[in-house]
From TrEMBL:
Classification via Pfam families: IMS, IMS_C, IMS_HHH
Listed EC numbers: 2.7.7.7
Signal peptide: none
Full protein name: DNA polymerase IV
Site residues by UniProt (Substrate discrimination): Y16
Keywords, comma-separated and alphabetical: Cytoplasm, DNA damage, DNA repair, DNA replication, DNA-binding, DNA-directed DNA polymerase, Magnesium, Metal-binding, Mutator protein, Nucleotidyltransferase, Transferase
Residue sites binding Mg(2+) per the record: D11, D101
Name of the coding gene: dinB
Organism, as annotated: Microbacterium alkaliflavum
InterPro entries: DNA/RNA_pol_sf (IPR043502), DNA_pol_Y-fam_lit_finger_sf (IPR036775), DNA_pol_Y-fam_little_finger (IPR017961), DNA_polymerase-Y (IPR050116), DNApol_IV (IPR022880), PolY_HhH_motif (IPR024728), Rev_trsase/Diguanyl_cyclase (IPR043128), UmuC (IPR001126)
Gene3D superfamilies, A to Z: 3.30.70.270, 3.40.1170.60, 5' to 3' exonuclease, C-terminal subdomain, DNA polymerase, Y-family, little finger domain
Amino acid sequence: MRGEATVLHADLDSFYASVEQRDAPELRGRPVIVGGGVVLAASYEAKAFGVRTAMGGRQARDLCPHAIVVPPRMEVYSAASKDVFAIFRDTTPLVEGLSIDEAFLEVGGLRRIAGTPEQIAVRLRERVRAEVGLPISVGIARTKFLAKVASAVSKPDGLLLVEPEREEAFLLPLPVERLWGVGRVTAEKLHGLGIHTVGELAELEAATAERLLGRAAGAHLHALARLRDPRPVDTTHRRGSIGSQRALGTRPRSPEELELFLTQIVDRLARRLRDRDRVCRTVVLRLRFGDFAKATRSRTLRSPTERTAVLLDVAQGLLASAMPEIEERGITLIGISLSQLGSAADVQPELPIDWDDGARLDTVLDALRDRFGATSVARAAQLGRDPGWSTPVLPEHE
């Protein structure tokens, strides 16, 4: 017998654009694009014209000439996220943050004190709207995967409950793109095999799916298609990595531009490490080429660090090693992840202790940004350049 639908997936709608419409009443009901060179977010009014996240700014304006383009305000989005997550944690202690604008909540066991999962979800949406001023969609299901699919289907500003007895009726007719982990390349491969719906994938034998899609991906997607997802809402461990990425559009990028984007990303991530008293040992460069194939390069340090200069030096080395392939294939996305995180308090200083200017510079820059804002001071390489940021690759909430 299947369990009760007690998992909520709460996902803010067009988060950055919704914040802009919240703060500027004249933007409400109008097409809004956040970010000029590359679309970081688009309101639903802009999406109706085909504008999508990570699209080049010129293409977006061609599709929607009357759109209002606004620069990103990452500090404001971060503050809104914290307010929303405070509501999540006031709803249930079992919250698993996925990113700056979405989370899973486990509400099983709260029926006596808070009502049914659907009643809890209704109140959560009302609170986010009333206290933070933002629309949020919520899916409710027995598993995390189904809850995430339900929230996506319910958008914008919706609520959808998938009862256990109607899971097959809900999931199987949906396009395979709804499966967690099916991107453009996998979708095209499945379409080429005549598989367009989740139900058609579920009809395959597991061994066939693994042979067609690869052992790991095939097993994962086939299990989801057959409604197998045993993962609980996970609040027991700290995240093992943090990261950010930047979508670059499709036009060619110079080595100087890529180094600028890399510097911005590393600068931001290193500060997040220091803010949390964390250190990392492994730096991972993430790339998406012009043909949309993905690649990673990584280096593990001998000693953990939170120093911007050290992390940037490693990241620049990884980028340099990838430049021949970038020049040949083009690039549409660049990102950095910092993994093998640990507590700064656990790191033993090596002798002789290095008290060079780099550590002091990090401290001074952090203090200035704390007092005057994240964009109040920048490295010389960033002066006069686009300060825009994309949505983090990995969750902000550790």
